[in-house]
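Re: weekly structure request thread

Next one in the queue (503 aa):
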Amino acid sequence: MKTSISLKPTIVVIFGGTGDLNMRKLAPALYNLYLDGYMPEKYAIIGTARRPLTDDKFRDTLMEGINSFSRSGKVKADKWSKFADHVSYTAVDVEAPDTFGHLKTAIEKHQKEFGPETQVLYYLAVAPNLFPLIAQCLSKYELAGNEDTCRIVIEKPFGRDLDTAKELNAILTGIFTEKQIYRIDHYLGKETVQNIMAFRFANSFLEPLWNRTYIDHVQISVTEQLGVGDRGGYYEGAGALRDMIQNHLLQLLCLIGMETPVNFDADEIRNKKVDVLKAMRPFGPDDIRFSTVRGQYAKGWVEGKEVPGYRHENGVAPDSNTETFAAIKFFVDNWRWQGIPFYVRTGKRLFQTSSLITIQFKDVPHHIFPSAVTEHWQQNRLIISIQPEMSIRLQVQAKRPGLDMVLNPVDMVFDYKGTYNSETPEAYETLLLDVMTGDQTQFMRADQVESAWELLMPVVNAWESKKSLSFPNYTADSWGPEDAEALIARDGFHWFTLPLNKD
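Done, posted below.
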């Protein structure tokens, strides 16, 4: 087990301390890091929000969140008591900058107690429009520190488009150095996603096959059975393209498509990801017409219960043009991937909640078996399942038991649950520990963010400028619009889905 010995004294300041993100993700993650021995010997957690709260009331609120959402279950009194001693609350109103003086006092108190090596982490679990205001207030009150002892963590979205992303980056880098800025994408903290790097670059048999000579196409599919719920207001300003493809799915594509790094240095890894984005084929008008699909869900039935269409969700306009589904065909125009399509899709109110990366290999050059033997023939596939199960499958052809020579596909499976007894950490646990140790490998750099926006802006502009006359164009509990099936079928492929394990 990793211990806290190597970690410097740390102060974690959470803006939006009483918000949903802290309750559901951050507080449980920090508590689990404490239980597993990953927190520094000296640490403090300071929650901030506008309304006044006592330390005890804030601690009770955190405990409710941890009891409800932590993978470790309800807190145990002795463990909680020790953890809670490190937790406090300071009221800070971003629109009343003088309240940052109270925060400065609280931070300096801990710095004096912990010593000169104390590092301060600011986690902005707030609406994106508050990022610049908080950064500027931290600068005004000399709380931005230096690049060795101060870090700021921001959640997506990183801008609404290329211009706002550049504007946000300019503000942040005017106050902090790039070394201090951690743009968090929780998808990159998921165990199976992190294993992509290990699987690709620690196994010698894969590299000779990982190119256009042997790979037919790549699919990245992140589907959700849930609708927008109470996030209708937010989703109206985002949509599937901004909410998922610009960040999560393009990051997964970069992991699959990147060249072999020289080492595991954070900037080396991120350089290779940027190279993929810069090599991706720009979208012209015809590409948007034939290589992109958008959709919006109508009402339907999910698990025996009727659910409303998107336009009838709270906070959604009755004539909304916002897409809840997006599918795009990308190309990476470089030596490794020239001509190989990368299909990505994401959507809400789909048949199944799952996150799959499917690498389909080209067929054997010559079939030696008669057709009667190969009735169930399929090309080899490598399937990386992120959720609901965590597994890596290699689908190959094998002989069926019996006297006759009959081939059928079989799965060679690496399954986390079947291989390891230890419980898998949540993504936020991994990423928060990375922030504390100063490891930026899994965090987006400014040029990554801007390159992703630059690639997608033609699609964003086309979809926003032209109202879809077909919305809603798929029912809840389906696999999305028929045009998405046609998008991949035109090339002779179909969307792959992994059968759900009901056990």
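Residues 1-5 have pLDDT under 50 and may be disordered. Residues 292 and 328 are 4 Å apart (CA to CA).
Next request, please.
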